[in-house]
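Worked example 3 (structure in, sequence out).
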């Protein structure tokens, strides 16, 4: 697939195949094409050349079996967690019907089950505006699950969250994907989180795919390939908790970057 915006080549002949159920993390610096890739996968953008296929079926318009979670939670503040989750069934019901909560029992059960999956069953009646950013993002995941997709796309779902909430949200995403055998494609900026939760990794640079592989190949050289000369200190701890400490201003120099990356490659 190639996607051009005027003279800008946002995606340059990118091609890959994902077996059902894989949990794929897309990495790359700002402007490398991550959002464009995800937006094309959900038909929010049309590729200039090439196509996305689910099975043999080309994706030409947004569809129910592909759910998308955005960086900004875009949930409705005034509604409860439960009502927000329930809007995931919108496409199966009329808009007005959804607002009036005229969904059938199975939709309601799905909403509760989805809230349970993201650890928010106890907060179901909590108004979204009273929830933390991490909780709101989990409501967003619940809503995507209620859509009952087979493919889950997320464009930097944890970009606006602190490290602890980021880990939690990624954990719930991973759990939800496993539980429902969803194919997940998630863009991230944090290499440490990618490493902790990812199964397969796709690296973009200037719109080109510079890496596509599994955990055992995702080492320091690959990270250099994806990020080039960018200062990546603090992104490379073997465990995200270490990265949190490092960003708190403890030991952070070039040698610790290399040392901790050794841990990562294990
Ligand atoms: N609608 C658009 N019109 C024109 N150019 C665009 C459009 N969307 C993206 N681009 C360009 O395509 C390239 C890839 O952008 P994209 O948003 O996919 O990058 P990204 O990897 O998601 O970056 P970030 O990490 O900052 O979100 C950039 O050069 C960007 O300016
Ligand atoms: Mg983006």
């Amino acid at each position: 697939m190639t996607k051009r915006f005027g003279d800008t080549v946002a995606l340059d002949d990118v091609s890959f195949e994902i077996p059902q159920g894989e949990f794929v993390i897309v990495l790359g610096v700002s402007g490398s094409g991550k959002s464009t890739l995800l937006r094309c996968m959900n038909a929010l953008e049309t590729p200039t050349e090439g196509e996305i296929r689910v099975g043999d079926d080309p994706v030409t318009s947004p569809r129910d079996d592909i759910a998308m979670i955005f960086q900004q939670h875009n949930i409705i503040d005034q509604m409860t967690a439960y009502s927000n989750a329930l809007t995931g069934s919108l496409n199966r019901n009329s808009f007005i019907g959804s607002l009036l909560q005229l969904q059938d029992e199975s939709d309601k059960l799905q909403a509760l089950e989805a809230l349970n999956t993201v650890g928010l069953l106890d907060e179901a009646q909590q108004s979204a505006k009273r929830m933390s950013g991490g909780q709101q993002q989990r409501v967003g995941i619940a809503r995507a699950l209620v859509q009952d997709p087979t493919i889950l796309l997320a464009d930097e779902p944890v970009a606006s969250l602190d490290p602890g909430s980021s880990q939690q949200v990624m954990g719930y995403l991973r759990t939800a994907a496993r539980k429902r055998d969803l194919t997940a494609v998630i863009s991230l900026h944090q290499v440490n989180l990618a490493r902790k939760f990812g199964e397969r990794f796709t690296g973009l640079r200037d719109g080109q795919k510079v890496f596509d592989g599994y955990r055992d190949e995702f080492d320091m050289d690959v990270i250099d390939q994806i990020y080039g000369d960018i200062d990546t200190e603090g992104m490379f701890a073997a465990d995200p908790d270490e990265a949190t400490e490092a960003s708190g201003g403890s030991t952070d120099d070039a040698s610790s970057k290399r040392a901790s990356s050794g841990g990562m490659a294990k």
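Notes: The first helix runs from residue 34 to 41. The longest strand covers residues 208-214.
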